[in-house]
Amino acid sequence: MLRTRLAPTPSGYLHLGNALSFVVTWAIARAREGQILLRIDDLDAGRRRPEYLEDIFRTIEWLDIDFDEGPEGPDDFLAQYSQQLRLPQYHEALRQLKEQGHLYACTCSRKEIRQLSTNGNYPGTCLKQGKDFDAPRTAWRVKVGPTREVTIPGWKRGIESIDLGREMGDFVVRQKNRAPAYQIASLVDDEHWKINFIVRGLDLLPSTGAQLYLADLLGYEQFTQATFWHHDLITGEDGQKLSKSAGADALKTWREAGKTPGDIFQIAADWLGVTEGSIRTSAELLAAVKDQNL
Ligand SMILES: [Zn+2]
């Protein structure tokens, strides 16, 4: 059974890109009789705000889509689903990686890395220095090396391959403030919830490579079998990142102006390649996706 998730971050009001990602994920899952989890990523609790949490639920309602598992509202989220409640699981994964010898401790400053790096990646300064993992202001990095191919099973785009060494190098898995990195939290949660279909923007292709690499080291059975769809990013007509006027503003502004989400479904239909006729609602999108047997 297909299991996927909507994974917004409550550190700002949602925008068009979030809505498109929700809508295409929802339509594919419903067309295949899969299950949808709402997974709110509040790893950075300092940036979480109640109005952003509320906005996630209002947006889902406004789009007229639904999910099968996850919080019923902001209070239920904070009581049962916050990533802050799952920190022990993330630290357990870090402990496992460390014990297996996949990590090393790094005390380099950003400035030092900038000065020594030839390609923007970490130059590996601390790799062979055996620094103390538990010293203050110490980041933990995973050994990737300068070149490492990772294969990504892709939906629609087929199998893709990236060079994780070139894209990310020895990336950080635990930050200097001891917080687990996004790559760890996202992966541990996806494995926990048995997610096997992940929709995300093309900008996250290196992240997917990083997470598949970690999943392999951790022996995760679900994530290593998952399929990914890295969709195009929304750009303006000139191919540039969207300006405010072109639709990068918050969906909240659209809702408050009484706009319906019709345009969002039309773009989503385009992305999915189901462009026969006008598609302006979640029901119409779902019907079109079912028709095409995507
Ligand atoms: Zn270092």
TrEMBL record:
Keyword Zinc carried by entry: yes
Domain Glutamyl/glutaminyl-tRNA synthetase class Ib catalytic: 2-260
Alphabetical list of PROSITE patterns matching this protein: AA_TRNA_LIGASE_I
Entry keyword Aminoacyl-tRNA synthetase: yes
Alphabetic keyword roster: Aminoacyl-tRNA synthetase, ATP-binding, Ligase, Metal-binding, Nucleotide-binding, Protein biosynthesis, Zinc
Superkingdom, natural source: Bacteria
GO cellular component, one term: cytosol
Similarity remark: Belongs to the class-I aminoacyl-tRNA synthetase family.
PANTHER family on file: GLUTAMATE--TRNA LIGASE, GLUTAMYL-Q TRNA(ASP) SYNTHETASE
Entry protein name: tRNA glutamyl-Q synthetase
